Amino acid sequence: MHSRRALLYMPGDDLRKIRKAATLGVDSACMDMEDGVALNHKKEARFTIIEALNTIEFGKTERLARINPVGSGFEIDDLQSVLPAHPDGIVLPKVESAEQVQWVCNQISQFEQRFGWSNLGIPLLAIVETALGIINIREIACSDERLEGLIFGSEDFAGDIGAIRTREGWEVFHARSLVITHAAAFNLQAIDMVYIDFQDNEGLRQEALQGAQMGFSGKQIIHPNQVNLVQEAFTPSDDSIEFARQVIELFEQNQTTGTGAFALNGKMIDMPIVKAAERVLLRARAAGKI
Ligand code: COA
Ligand code: MG
Q1: Which pLDDT belongs to residue 185?
Q2: Which residues line ligand 1 (CB under 6 A)?
Q3: 10 Å Cβ neighbour count for 67?
């Protein structure tokens, strides 16, 4: 799976921002056709995204396209326009059922067959951002093998349940937690909410670190200022990589002598800690740090 520590949105009708996104070293750039684009610019967004996919060099940055929700009336034209230009993945918003995911996955499969592309080469990421989506998250999480990640949309979710967004975010905490747990259960990435105050770096750093501590693998972002801070928050620190290496080394030594639990720096180490250490190294590797 592509590393998606930061997933940067930009309006699909804004070629200047797409060009900029390609220069930022961000893990994923998501060209939007949904809520970041005015109703009378949907067509323009499709054409601009095709142009971007065909002409802009993104380097290691993944090129995602966010279509409109299933049932919006835009989704078929969105897919039929951008899929022939082979984006690296599709982001589907306002997902509320397994059928919606399966419908889009089936459309992508048909394109892959028609163009002779490799099967399942274009992954899908599902945004869960309504009360119904959260209730049905289990069936969504295991709906299709093309699905690589669950994304939590906090602003839409808060609006849907009638919550008022606060800085502490307790009103969306339970839903965030459900997204992480279901993603973990079905081997998917979990991508955290947007921090909309793009001038508040300290607030962003705290929220990104909290998301990483909760188990998210990455975070959605909306401004170039947010790229480095968020990617750092989702990259294991040198200290935690070193600690993880020691844990695994000692674990392997102790296994040969038949010892399950042991002490390192005054802390008890057993299987769950070893598994956590393996995850740290996996993330460090995905981030290109080791
Ligand atoms: N992606 C790429 N480049 C972006 C960007 C983004 N999301 N947001 C801003 N930039 C660029 C601007 O074009 C500008 O580049 P320039 O100096 O070459 O002109 C530079 O970064 C600084 O931008 P700034 O002036 O601080 O912001 P802005 O007022 O132009 O834009 C927003 C503010 C919020 C409108 C903009 O950040 C944005 O469009 N974000 C994404 C919105 C979106 O996609 N929403 C839907 C998903 S939640
Ligand atoms: Mg949304």
Answers
A1: 98
A2: 8-11, 16-17, 20-21, 32, 35-36, 194, 222-224
A3: 27
